[in-house]
Amino acid sequence: TMERGLDEAVQAALWFKRLKEISNEKFLPLFFDQHRHLVLMGGGGSGKSIFAGQKVIDRCISEKKHRFLVVRKVARTLRESCFDQLKTQAQALCPEEIARIPKGKGSDMYLQFKNGSEIIFAGLDDVEKLKSIHDITGIWIEEASEIEERDFDQLDIRLRGNTRYYKQIILTFNPIS
């Protein structure tokens, strides 16, 4: 009905307004980018990681059964960076969509959403654990300048198979020489 269409348009406008408020405007056009590789380079405080997190969360809540993998070179650095950031963002942006977030310092790191989507976290320093992760539909590589080419190739291989949504690897890093 026309009323439903108007309601959806209002919701989309409110979503985009909120996105503009919390994101660096330079990254906004990339929110709609569907290329296989999305490269976000910027200095500390540029908002690239916040933006990547927002895109990952938004895809997880709007696309059912998403399985996003978030990685860094070293697993122990994930909890205080990506996991804490995404947990905080999800709790602020869509608390009603969250199904489960493990609590405690020693707990596993993942976020589950009510629509069956999830975000899982892994360090590239444990190759065997990475090999056991399957059915990945998207990947975010934080501090991508730290990883080796073979790490990237292994991740690229993990992003395969047929899904109803586009597959993308988001790479975020600071400028390097």
Structure description:
It is a single chain. Strands 1-7-6-2-5-4-3 form a 7-stranded mixed sheet. The mean pLDDT is 87. A hairpin with a 4-residue loop joins strand 4 (110-113) and strand 5. The longest helix has 21 residues, at 2-22. The protein is an alpha/beta fold and 177 residues long. The protein is built from 5 helices and 7 strands, in the order H-E-H-E-H-E-E-E-H-E-H-E.
Distance between the termini: 55 Å
- Classification by helices and strands: alpha/beta
Global outline:
globular
Strand order of the largest sheet: 1-7-6-2-5-4-3
Beta content comes to 15-25%
Succession of helices and strands: HEHEHEEEHEHE
Number of DSSP helical runs: 5
Summarize model confidence as the mean pLDDT: 87
Largest sheet: 7 strands, mixed
Radius of gyration: 16 Å
**Strand element count:** 7
Helical residue percent? 25-40%
**Uncertain residue ranges:** none
Q: What features would you highlight for this structure?
A:
seven-stranded mixed beta sheet; single chain; 177 residues; 5 helices; alpha/beta
Q: What's the arrangement of secondary structure elements?
A:
Blueprint: H1 2-22, E1 37-41, H2 48-62, E2 67-72, H3 79-93, E3 98-100, E4 110-113, E5 118-123, H4 127-131, E6 138-142, H5 149-158, E7 168-173
Helix pairs in contact: 2-3
